[in-house]
Write a structure and sequence with these properties.
This protein is α+β, with helices and mostly antiparallel strands. It has 22 helices and 14 strands. Among the domains are: 9-94 and 262-412, no CATH class; 518-612, Roll (Ubiquitin-like (UB roll)), CATH 3.10.20. Helix 3 packs antiparallel against helix 4, helix 9 crosses helix 10 and helix 16 (351-359) crosses helix 17.
Length: 646
Amino acid sequence: MAVLTQSGNLHKRFLETVLLLKALNEVQGVPSAHGLDSNERPSTQRAVFLKRKFLDSFAFVCATRKGGANVSAACMEENQSGETIIRLACNTGVRESVLSDAQAIIQILTRVANGECVNETSILSKIISMDSSRIHQYLQELKACHAPVSRPEIERRISKHAVDAPLHHVESLLEWFDGIPAIQELDCENEEKLLKFIRHAQRAKHDYAELLHASFRTDTGQLEKWLLIVFKLGRYGIASRAFAQLAFEQPTLIAHMAVHPVMAPEELPISPPRLDLDVVLRRLNSSQVDTYRRRLSQIWKGKGTLQNYFARQCPDHFSVHAELQLVSFYDDNPHVKPSLRFIGVSKKSCYLCNRFLANHPLSLTTSACHQKLYSTWAAPSTKASKVYNSYKSIIRRLICTMEAAIKQELDSRSKFSHRLVPPDSSAGVSLSGITEPRSIPVMSGALLEEPIYNRQKTMSRSLVSRNDSAYSDGSGSVIPFWGTPLQAQYTGTLDFESQDCIHNNEIPSTISPLPSKIMTMVLHFERADNHLKQEIVRVSEIFDHANQQPVWERLVEILSFDGRFRINFCLENDLLMIENHAVEDQRQFAACLQYLYNIDKLNGHCLVCDRNTIEKSVHGCTDVDGLQFQDTMSPITHNLQNYTCC
């Protein structure tokens, strides 16, 4: 059976749209925070939470080299025979050495699951051995950085940027900084020192994130490079803890676990199509081509003729990212399904992968998206015509979304400045929540000295510890968007790692999950000028659980779907009114949903109004259109001149 690949006019239009949007702004919106990256308690079911931590950490350690070619992704399957399969993909294919090392880690975890006496250090040692090349690169980069290691400099920064920090916390941070010079001189061949340093590095994010974020940012708001490297090195220690904790708490999941690689497709060579900028601009708005060209001349000033610069953006190859390789595998093997609709990733997902996953029937998600566009991105190939047509449908939606974004860029921006390009990777999975409410034995010193065994004894001790724990206000607590109250407060240290014990006590997770009724809230939309055009949207469809925020862009995308009885929303030409409140951006949308929640209203009524008609009505226009509009909008237009902005 022939392999079906996206090609022809649809692929050309998709490529042209990607190239133009990327040339206008490489970053589409604000990067989403890493869902497993923050020091907050899990609001999801603990079993799911630990699996997500495991998958993100597993993908991270399987990306054994730096660079986009080695980005990895992983899914989990649980079949009826009791076997657990980790489905692993890599941008350029999973190497045999990576697969062998990954299976060796699983073998160690299997021993933990079977109750054998295993030291967590052995897990970390295997991870370090597996990722030695990447760790060595990080250490070389760290040596080239000039970290502020003198106490006066550190104290000066903290006093300037974190004046309210408790004195004992500052002193603890200063002690932590004392280890930085030794790190910069670290020999990658000395495994014992490397183990201790990675334990030391993982404390940076867990214990001192707030102070470090406040004191060590660049002028652009990014963390200083040396600190990002320390955070990344600390991920290896966090990964070993995430692995051990899942094996300890869910032994049946690990006991019969295997790693199966996904075969990566070959890079797709292309014959560069003839790209015509004017054709693209006419598709956007045939009456505005000259205006668009003038604005593009401002943006691309000094880059040659518009047509030549646009044509030069065309890549010479395409590749299917690891996340979509997994999607393709499940589409081509419908008898196999992931037990958890989540993809662990070694780096944040790109904009196109994120949007593709959001439109795909499997509803797979990742923990974060850096919102960057890659012109070499390609949708997967397939041998099934039904799957192929599904991919074509998704590509059409992506084109519509991106063309709307291009129009907004060209129509509404008076100054053309590119958004700050974020890093592809993040500091990664945090320790928070991993070791509570049940924990593997307490760690002593820089390394875990007590083996992982005797669960019953450990759990009994944990219960006693929790009863003895004293709770105080914790600056690290994060209150969810909906204002869910904390049922208890905890100390500044949220969970445990090598030296993160509070008198050997363990502190349970205390942030309440989101109220269930929030996820049942529904918004009913209709056009003010045509009641037959309607849409109904569940808040759960547009809610980012990682950030505890509704996503305005997701709502706009749903409302902009084209169809005879669809809303056909256009951000430029239409205004959205939710319960008599005008909404035009993320902040106003979040405020309106909070308003509905506060008045205990689960079903919100929303109108989509033509902006030109509104302007006529506001200025007292009494023509036919205006009267029709006022009749249609009743009762909202009774007070249209004083309509509310959230």
